[in-house]
Amino acid sequence: MASSNLLAQKGLTRKGRGLLLAYDHGFEHGPVDFDGQSIDPTFIMEIADSGFFTGVVLQKGVAEKYYDPQKHQVPLILKLNGKTAFHKDEEPYSPQICSVAEAADLGAAAVGYTIYVASEKETDMMKEFSQIEEQAHDKNLAVIGWMYPRGSHVPDDTDPQVLAYAARLGLELGADAIKIKYTGDPESFSWVVQAAGRTQVFVVGGSKTSQGQLIQQTQEILSVGAAGWAIGRNIWQAKHPLAIAERLATLVYSHPVPDS
Q: Are 128 and 97 in contact (CB under 8 A)?
């Protein structure tokens, strides 16, 4: 099944566009990103289920306790690997900590996995990803690759050629979609999107930024063919999360998909 069809079948895109609410920060960063509201997954699930999002990204413990496939309408993307912020490894590795079978049992529509492209340990992650991809597709689950260039071979993780290589790797490994950083301008990011081919591209939301810059970047990434955002802090750290979500959703779902 073509990647775009599987994503659409699972409700992860609407006419080729999507807006994913990321909430795996507690595992990756610790609670430093949270305030008194956002530390509570119930608050996040209320935002995720607002109708503005086509997916919510959770680690398995949060999904077990806060995601009910009978109650929540938003599709679940279960993150299958992770590492803590305590170890500042120059050559990072993020091990698998959840199985595809567990993800399916929890009602996931898709699974996600980080590959630190160019890390000396990328081979281990590519091997795990390949096994996950086969198992997930056997269960008709979509697969999203977090394609993050890291390590001593990568002096700049927003370099367009480095990101294009990471995007291409996602395509060649069989990912249905990738999550990747923005280069900073639409001209260079266009090459990254082209490198991904028919694998759909979601852009990392990153640290909190101004609403004006977020809107501008949304228009830029969509103009060159990205599917949308995988965004967290710019939503749930905002004073009015649903207002920002509605503004982004209006832009994302109304923007035409370029002819392939």
A: no
Query: Residue 137 is which amino acid?
Result: H
Using the predicted structure, report yes or no on whether residue 2 has a pLDDT greater than 70. no
pLDDT digits (tens, 9 = 90+) for 119-144: 999 999 999 999 999 999 999 999 99
- Name, in order, each residue with C-beta under 8 angstroms of 201's C-beta and a sequence gap of 6 or more: 167, 177, 178, 180, 192, 193, 225, 226, 227
**CA gap 232, 196 in Å, rounded:** 23
Give me the catalytic one of 148, 182, 239, 253.
148
Q: When comparing pLDDT for 199 and 1, which is higher? A: 199
CB 232 within 8 A of CB 25: yes
Q: Catalytic site residue 67?
A: no
Q: Give CA–CA dist 132/60, Å, rounded.
A: 15
Residue 37: pLDDT above 80? yes
d(CA 147, CA 170): 7
Domains of the chain: 3-254 (3.20.20.70)
Torsional sign, CA 119, 123, 128, 129 = positive
Mean of all residue pLDDT scores within the chain:
96
Query: Model's pTM, two decimal places?
Result: 0.96
DSSP state of 259: P
- 121 included as an active-site residue: no
> Which entry of 179, 181, 182, 253 is annotated as an active-site residue?
179
Q: Say how far apart CA 3 and CA 171 lie, in whole Å.
A: 10
